Amino acid sequence: MSKKVTLIDGSGYIYRAFHALPPLARHDGTPVGAVYGFTNILYNFLQTHPYDYLLVAFDAARKTFRSDIFPEYKAQRKEVPPELIPQFAIIREACQAMNLPYLEWEGVEADDIIATYVEECKKAGYEVTVISADKDLMQLMDEAAKVQMFDPIKNRLLTLEDVHKKFATTPDKVPDVQALMGDSSDNITGAKGIGPKTAGKLIADFGSLDNLMANLDQIKQPKRREALEEYQSHVDVARQLVTLKRDIKDLPPLEDYAKREPDYEVLTAFLRENNFKRLLEKVLRQQANNTPTEQMSFGTDQYKDKTYKLITKLEDLQALVARIKKARLVAVDTETTGLNPRWDALVGVSLALEKDEAFYIPVAHCNTQGEREPGQLAWRDVRLLLRPVMEDENILKVGHNIKFDLIVLRKHGLDLKGLHDTMLMSYVLNLGKHDHGLDALAYRYLGYNMMSFKEAMTHVPKGATQKHFGAVPLAVAERYAAEDADLTLQLYHLFKPRLEEENLNAFYETVERPMAAVVAAMEYEGVLVNPSYLQELSETFSQQLATLEQTIYKEADEEFNIGSPKQLSEVLFDHLGLPPQGKKGKAGNFSTDSDTLEKLAALGHTLPEAILEWRQLSKLKSTYSDALVEKIHPDTKRVHTSYSLAGTNTGRFASSDPNLQNIPIRTEEGRKIRKAFCAPPGSSLVCIDYSQVELRILAHMGGVKNLQEAFQKGLDVHTSTASAMFDVPENHVTPDMRYKAKMINFGIIYGMSHYGLAQRMRIPNDVAKGFIDTYFQKFPEIES
């Protein structure tokens, strides 16, 4: 079989990747979007396409022999974007990391390097694949000589039909056509007025550019003939510029580019450094599938100075406990079968006392059949030995999001006391500046790339019955888990002095640090819900949805899938002829999002209003009345949400899995959901909230007399506002009116326009403007 040669247009590849992908930066802020596109697509291509020789060609500089022929060549091109400049060097590092040879040659472009090697390969009878979609390289395509082009972005081979569509000719005649039509992207003039189709037809009729120019008198169209005569010198120069050089002297022999396997340690280190997590996981997964566990490489030398150990003997754990008692400070981290601490099982515990030294105590790792791996300590023995230090308030336990570990260990019979949390330390020190995740902080402050959870999971053997952390081989789990404790300890020693230096320690100690234990207790206890009430509510919602669907079908005069944006778009804008509120999307349909439907509803169209009601009811049913029942813990009979202590820039908690903070109260149906939450016999639910705190500040600082009077008399400000807005007595204000008044109160003080208010309230613009005018009449100090 003939040899297969792959020639890659590296420079063209860089620009395509840069423009095809959104901006991306690694942890230190260096832009790497083009690097990622280049590396990811190239790596994927090489995994699926066999080759014997490979070369990546780059442009050495903008000035080449073409600049000598025509000084204005590419002169009009914009300067290289500043965010792309540092990526050129990193892309060459990517080639080195993948062990791919690359070449740049002074005075020529990457295309000329490729063209020269294509000629050499044709003489040797080798098959050539040029990796590029650059139109200038199409002149190299040659079916007979087995020279083809592959577009890596679109992942397909280019065909003669692609060439004809671009130039209306065959590959060998592309330079002649290009010379006639010119190339504005390279500042090549050609013959003005001659486009690709005309140029292609002329070359087809006369056989070549030389023959065409020698027989201009045979051209029947006067303007075309005059253009060719006038611009003949331009065409001559253009042909020199567009014709690829195929005879560069002294290039390295093709044998220098024989296939090489990558050094996976170098490659994974490069991917970690640039934070290419998905590609790193793919590389590690492929490596793990082909490498025995005991021979696994972690792709970096950052472990060489670390001492990470498994604890599998009681005497070793006893010695570690003795050290903890002496040190009075230990970093703690737990590994579990999932991310819900109240539901999932403990797999192991990691501890760290000194920088670069940490220990992992596995207690529930399993083999591929799901059976407990031998050689692990029993949790009851571990718990017994750890209890004196873990429950001693005078021995400090440092964790990152230690609330999670506290709940996990409490569930398994062990309490943590004397807590510090590096996540909350970072939150106090760096609120709003960056992410507070452990891996992000380790990189930002310690210059360390941590092994990600997904990366660890790539080492789970094929065919394993369990797909949680307990299935990760101990050789990998040891490093992953010990690293968490080690880096947490290092961040503690970095952040604790900073809190003192920046006068933030008092706030951390009195507000944030105690909160971890308080909120952990809240999560552990959970919230009681009434499952039978939720089930009844789901049935009610189902009946209401069925009624709504019939109303919608009647309004639309046909049945369709209400949940399908495509079908809904066709019904609203094609069948009913409602006015679209924007341009068509990529799928060729007008948008049917909430904003669009609200605009249409505000115009008086009843079907969009019904669709919005259907969507809201469907969400209530699927997200709450159905889903909350599934979230009830089988043992506690309660729902255990997770409250993020460092998830917002305002200092507020954020609730998730399930989200209990954003249960809608705007409609009666939404308020019904809240009735599912109840107190056990003998207890009551108490709702505590700041009372219109923003409006109180406004009333005081702005001297708003009517607001001050309302607060002094203890009136409900939103009810008072609703009474004025809707011209009804206060005792006739409905919950919906009050909600809309609240929207007006807060919307206006934050600068909402009458147009925005109209959208939010689904009312005409003039009505919204009237509300705002009335509001300012009532509270004139606010407008001024």
What topology, given as strand order, has the largest sheet? 3-2-1-4-5-6
What percentage of residues falls in helices of 4 or more residues? 40-55%
**Poorly predicted tracts of residues:** 292-300
β-sheet strand percentage: 5-15%
Cα Rg: 35 Å
Mean pLDDT across all amino acids: 88
Distance between the termini: 85 Å
Q: Tell me about the largest β-sheet.
A: 6 strands, mixed
What's the β-strand tally? Answer: 16
Count the DSSP helices: 33
Q: Which descriptor suits the 3D outline?
A: globular
Structure class = alpha/beta
Structure in words:
With about 775 residues, the chain is an alpha/beta fold. The protein is about 50% helix and about 10% strand. It is built from 33 helices and 16 strands. The strands form 4 sheets. It has a 6-stranded mixed β-sheet. Strands 7-10-9-8-11-12 form a 6-stranded mixed β-sheet. Strands 13-14 form a two-stranded antiparallel ribbon. Helix 12 (about 265-275) runs antiparallel to helix 13, helix 27 (about 695-700) crosses helix 28 and helix 31 (about 755-760) crosses helix 32 (about 765-780). The protein is globular, with a radius of gyration of 35 Å. The protein starts with a strand and ends with a helix.
